[in-house]
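Crash report, auto-generated. Payload:
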Amino acid sequence: MTLSPETIADTALREIDAHGVNGLSIRAVARRLAVDHKSLYNHVDGKDGLLDAVAGRILSTIALPAPTGDLDADIRAFAHAFRAHALRHPQAAALVLTRPVTSPSGLVPIDAALAVLMTAGFSPAQAVHVLRLLMALLVGAILREADSALTLATGDHDEAARRAAQLSTLGLPALSAAAAHISMIDDEAEFDFTVAAALEAIRTIPRS
Amino acid sequence: MTLSPETIADTALREIDAHGVNGLSIRAVARRLAVDHKSLYNHVDGKDGLLDAVAGRILSTIALPAPTGDLDADIRAFAHAFRAHALRHPQAAALVLTRPVTSPSGLVPIDAALAVLMTAGFSPAQAVHVLRLLMALLVGAILREADSALTLATGDHDEAARRAAQLSTLGLPALSAAAAHISMIDDEAEFDFTVAAALEAIRTIPRS
DNA sequence: ACCTGAACACCGTTCAAGT
DNA sequence: ACCTGAACACCGTTCAAGT
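Recovered output after restart:
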């Protein structure tokens, strides 16, 4: 297998899947490729360039469904495709969602989303604002989900009960009242609720 | 100055402000404190524990305005206080916004927010969902702003024009049409728009 | 309870010399 | 254009010995 930015990025991604972003090292990637670690510098711009390459690779491999013309349905489909793709590599999610989009291939999904919004009657300026709103919401929601392994909430009932009990001991009244609910989470349902709220907000924006 | 988790976290935060999260090292913090680096292990649980401590310290020093009873005004005030506080340390924003909240002091703002929502008529379960929605939106919006130094958009008109011209060369029609708007951003206005959308969505949620 | 030498296994990166 | 020794300045962490 010859060395290329793509193979290097893919190998780095597998390393991230296995050991997390913090476990990623240039030398470990090189070991995986059975190559001298300094060789990577001929194809990638240092460690930061490697991380950019990984983020770009993930972003460019997202598969967006074709627009139907129904704004709500299209946004919903976009949101779910984005989420599903990001969560395929939860360890790398923060990377993709946090790094600025620079590569041309990463701009393709953005173009597609803007097209949907403009077709629905939003001006270019409005479409940009709505897209920023939508992306902020998706990034926030998916990010929480990605490291939900470490969060207050869990999907397990017994564990949730245990955490709720602990939360109630802190003397914070509102938190105590909601402890049972804040300790339990159904990720799918939560995401649907989030997207529905976004649709509601977008619906009320006047179009010109 | 004697060594404590708080002084260590504060010093680490200054180091992050100066050199970014990636520039943070246990040894550099120790140097700043004029202390042997291994001493830190007596007060903090390794580098990961140090990062947790920094995030907790920031979260626990947020100053929330007193609720007025007007839901929209209170949410708006909460959102702006949260944003202002997070952006005081843009280099550390990802840390605070990404790490799960564990420390009791970090739960105080959560309790306050839940109280506001429940006072407005939301059930505990609803309040939790609404808070998760709001937090996702704030996290996504603030995160983009925090590393907007590196993003497509800029606040400078000339620079924006330059980027817009470049975006238009990619052959992506919707992106080209919106290039001028996607290259320019007014962070304040964008955040207001985002919060207004959140209020709109929250308004339509039936309360019980 | 806290400090600190010694020591270990790891890093990222540059550069000059090779092919 | 790509590879790779040699080398550098840096890491995080453990542990045993000290106070």
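Post-recovery validation: The radius of gyration of chain A is 20 Å.
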